[in-house]
Amino acid sequence: MSVETTVNGEPEEQIETEWTEYGFGGDAAFSVRDLDVYYDDDRALRSIDIDIPEESVTALIGPSGCGKSTFLRCLNRMNDRIRAARIEGSVAFRDRDIYGTDVDLVELRRRIGMVFQQPNPFPKSIRDNIAYGPRKHGDINTGLLSRLLGGDDREREEELVERCLRGAALWEEVSDRLDDNALGLSGGQQQRLCIARALAVDPEVILMDEPASALDPIATSKIEDLVEDLAEEYTVVIVTHNMQQAARISDQTAVFLTGGHLVEYGDTDQIFENPQSQRVEDYITGKFG
Amino acid sequence: MSASHASSATIEDDRSGVARSAATTAVGLSVLTMLLAVANVLNWITTDASVASVALSTLYGVALAVAGVVTVAVGLLSASAVIDANANDTSGVLSGLPVGLLALSVVGLVASQTLGYGVAIWAPAALVCAVAAFLFGSLAREDLTATLPWGGFALFVAAVLLAGVITPSWTWDPRHLGVALTGTITVPCLAFAASLATAWAAAKATQGFGARGRQAGAYLLIGANALFMLSLLVLLVAFVVEKGAGHALRGIHLGPGLSVHVPFVMNGAGLGYDIDGVFPAIVGTFWLVFGALVFAVPLGVGAAVFLAEYAERGRFTTVVDIATDGLWSTPSIVYGLFGYAFILPRLSPGGRPNVLAGMLVLGFMLIPLVLITSREAIDSVPDAYRDASVALGVGRWETIRSVVLPAAVPGVITGIILGVGRIAGETAPIILVAAGGLNADPIRVIHGFRFTSSPPFVANDALLSATNALPYQVYAVIETGVGGSESFGWASAFVLLLVVLCFYAVGIATRMYFQRKLER
């Protein structure tokens, strides 16, 4: 199958189906079939078919407005929060359709964590930020009632906070001020805190929407190192517009181009060294986009 | 405007420098005149007084004449390119309108009142002059329109004052108006208006007109406006304090022990007291406001949460918006009548006024404001917080409760502060539903609770009895002469001011506490 795309009425190159076929050993975390997303009448994604492997870093790259963030937000149904959005097709997580009727959204989002473009810690203490999710899920009880009943989990909370902060490479910097407000941290620290907060609910997948685009180079490189470490335990899907970043940290790369098409998907080295699509090559070498 | 030769440019620069310092002097002189006029209106200086053996109106006249001459001169010199300026070639309608209005009022007043022409003459004359002035003000060079009318007005006022046309003993009693203007108030008002005009014009001249000149003029006007507003507030408070503080603090003494006894604040009114006091009214106001808050805050905040977080934007929310705005601007007497006709008969036999009805009616009045401000506050919580919480798998209500509402609390409290300020001073509904005249004893709400053996198992007679409240007391004493002297009323007003300030202080402290929690 091949799709003809047009830009400004000019016929563009055909997208060959084999460009987006990527064979990998092991199971797929996500299997997306024929996914279309509309915002009112605008079609943001067109017939996306993609399998995303477990415990690796998958980068989604492409120019602004190509639908890569929209795609990411389909994976944990955050698009449901946008009223104008309409989603067609299927997204399976571990072979279960997440758009099915019997899906528990709370459970889904607990298993599929998300880190946003702008660091968005709550205006609470560092400790409260990390413990927020587990407390709300009832995994940790520190309330007055549980203290009276003898089920005080504060020690477990301490362990959890330390483990998550270490996991996000932030422990050394904040261990002596866990009760300070998170808004007092630098942008890079805030973003790592958000990662730690996502780790605290013990997710299986972490989705990242341009997590370093609002940060300076040093903070960016810390996030990049962290992403590579996280991939040993978690499935990471990361949207980025920084191609060097995608090349450095990802195992496989999906290239979205204007109009909401997935044009090419494969091993990162192959995509960056020997892309099959002329348009992808132009985009990667900076000729357009 | 710019010179062709370097030497003449230096001379021009020198001249411009002199002109600008003259304009600065004119601004200073005008501001001093303005302050003097304000002090005059406030009766700190009387109009027939003299400063350094010069009569006040002569002083105004001289100052205005100097400022006016400087303003006009700078404008003419700038227009004839003697001094450097960057004025626009035309001024625009916005500049023409005030000039036209000035001409309309001055010519109209002079022709009709001073020269005594009939309406057939003065009205067309004023209109023609106004249109001419409007055209001049719109089309002429900016440095002319900014200075000539206003400097001219100042010179006119100066001439009127110096020639003794309007003196402190002058009165004007227009036949068809029910008011009589006296010289004692007209002289300072004229001086104020004229000096404001020259200050504005001269401020523009100090920066050589153009964009920077307009900026300087606007700065002066806005500064004067802010100062005026602030002084109005200070004046109001000072007036009440001056009138009321003396009586309120009468008989104050220490003891026994370390306690302070302020009879006016701590006594009731009646035969048993040497100095009648307003303690029952203070307690009444406190309970009324407290009850209204208990009733209105949960309802208002709850409705705000529903509208901001759950309801789809549509026809329903639009109707609710209109309804809340309408309720907020409904006159309080309407609420009072509603309480009188609807609530009273259902709460007590015979429809006697009672505290509970007062709480409910004030609560109804408070709900719209709490709703509007809480909704604003909730809407302004960044979506990033909601996204973050939802992405952690936390449900909608939990997200609202743990993230959105805490972040919105300072805004909600601001709304409550504003609302309390309104209801604490509300008189009309209290007259109708809660007031019961001057009491010797405060209502005892807490002691009033008792348990009963039949449903509803708890009763409170105090809530169903009438009470006094500070605003009602002020009204009753000053307007209808109930229970004592006028100074008693002023002292009540003073105490009311203090009580409202106390509510504010509590509200602001709470807001600061929550804000600090969000920030550090």
Automatic annotation (TrEMBL), chain A:
Domain ABC transporter residue range list: 30-284
The organism's place on the tree of life at top rank: Archaea
Keywords: ATP-binding, Cell membrane, Membrane, Nucleotide-binding, Transport
InterPro entries reported for this sequence: AAA+_ATPase (IPR003593), ABC_transporter-like_ATP-bd (IPR003439), ABC_transporter-like_CS (IPR017871), P-loop_NTPase (IPR027417), PstB-like (IPR005670)
Gene Ontology annotations of biological process type: phosphate ion transmembrane transport
GO MF entry, a single one: ATP binding
One Pfam family of this chain: ABC_tran
GO cellular component: membrane
Gene3D superfamilies linked to this entry: P-loop containing nucleotide triphosphate hydrolases
NCBIfam families: 3a0107s01c2
Protein name, per record: Phosphate transport ATP-binding protein PstB
TrEMBL record, chain B:
Record SUPFAM superfamilies: MetI-like
Gene3D superfamilies found in the cross-reference section: MetI-like
InterPro entries in the cross-refs: MetI-like (IPR000515), MetI-like_sf (IPR035906), Phosphate_PstA (IPR005672)
Residue ranges annotated for the ABC transmembrane type-1 domain, each copy included: 282-507
Disulfide bond among keywords: no
Bilayer topology: Multi-pass membrane protein
Origin: domain of life: Archaea
GO annotation terms (biological process): phosphate ion transmembrane transport
Cellular localisation: Cell membrane
GO MF term list: phosphate transmembrane transporter activity
The keyword Cell division appears for this protein: no
Record's signal peptide: none
TM ranges: 21-45, 57-79, 91-111, 117-136, 148-170, 176-197, 218-241, 286-307, 319-343, 355-372, 403-424, 490-514
GO cellular component: plasma membrane
CDD domains: TM_PBP2
Sorted UniProt keywords: Cell membrane, Membrane, Transmembrane, Transmembrane helix, Transport
Chief location of this protein within or outside the cell: membrane
Protein family (similarity comment): Belongs to the binding-protein-dependent transport system permease family. CysTW subfamily.
Annotated protein name in UniProt: Phosphate transport system permease protein PstA
